[in-house]
Design a protein that fits this description.
This protein is α/β, with parallel strands linked by helices. 35% of the residues lie in helices and 13% in strands. α1 (52-63) runs parallel beside α2 (77-88) and α1 packs across α7. The model has no long low-confidence stretch (mean pLDDT 96).
Length: 285
């Protein structure tokens, strides 16, 4: 209850945000995560792996013995390079690829490159997402709705479709959904809808791919301290971010990474079509 801050200072960043400007810095497990060889020899592709939850998952995976390939937007190149450095510091192979995953072709290209660089993919983490808050329905522009759904829903669908043959016989797909799928905020109408859609997609994919030996699950984070927060929320809302959860504070990316490690590991060999909530006590059902 006391290791991480309960309140955050008001701040603002330009979208998509950067770890370098986050105050206080987030914990991605650089020193706090202890690896236990739970993913030795696995090869993971993580979208949105440059910062926030994606970076924490990349660091934890590397500390657990996995090689890691991350995808990111061109604007996130500096953060992505740092994530790769953190992966390689653990003695693992790290790769990154600049792309915008709003088209089927971009997802096919990413899948092809990841397979080529890693020599195959055992774990796919669909984590890339777009959100932007507005106070009223009339303020949501059409282009934002299209971007949110293309990034958050269409991209994961196309990427799983492209990688499905490579994930057979023991592969794991993990999709980042959100507490917003269960308790939507009125200023995140489009984002919350995409996360609910992803929950449904995870269940359907688990049924479709289960007979081929591929598990499909989701992690639903609550309020987690990442660059996306000051880049998409009004500065005056930052101080109260996460304080209404039962645990009374926002979570740190490393606290979410534990769920991904479990779902990617052989310990979860009989876990599929499940949503794991990491929400600070907010219900996920």
């Amino acid at each position: 209850m006391t290791e991480y801050p309960e309140k955050l200072p008001p701040q603002e960043q330009q979208w998509p945000g950067t770890e370098a400007e986050l105050d206080p810095p987030a914990d991605h497990g650089e020193t706090s995560w202890t690896g236990r060889d739970r993913l030795t020899g696995k090869r993971a592709l993580i979208t949105g792996g440059d910062s926030g939850i994606g970076r924490a998952v990349a660091v934890a995976f590397a500390k657990e013995g996995a090689d890691v390939f991350i995808a990111h937007l061109p604007q996130e190149a500096d953060d992505a390079a740092e994530t790769v450095r953190l992966v390689e510091a653990q003695g693992r192979r790290g790769f990154h690829h600049e792309t915008d995953l709003r088209t089927a072709q971009a997802n096919r290209d990413l899948a092809e490159r990841a397979v080529a660089e890693l020599g195959g993919v055992d774990v796919l983490v669909c984590n890339a997402a777009f959100q932007m808050t507005h106070e009223a329905l009339a303020e949501f522009p059409p282009e934002q709705i299209e971007r949110t759904f293309a990034t958050n829903v269409f991209g994961p669908f196309w990427l799983v479709q492209a990688l499905a043959p490579h994930l057979e016989d023991g592969g794991s797909v993990i999709v980042t959904t959100s507490i917003q799928a269960y308790s939507p905020s009125d200023h995140l109408i489009d984002y919350a809808a995409t996360k609910a859609a992803l929950n449904n997609l995870v269940v359907n994919l688990a049924q479709e791919l289960g007979s081929k030996g591929t598990r499909v699950n989701a992690v639903a984070p609550g309020p987690i301290w990442t660059p996306l927060i000051p880049a998409t929320m009004p500065p005056e809302n930052i101080e109260s971010f996460g304080t209404t959860t039962p645990l009374g504070r926002p979570g740190q990316p490393v606290e979410v990474a534990a769920a991904y490690v479990f779902l990617a590991s052989d310990e979860a060999s009989y876990v599929s079509a499940t949503v794991v909530g990491v929400t600070g006590g907010e219900p996920v059902f």
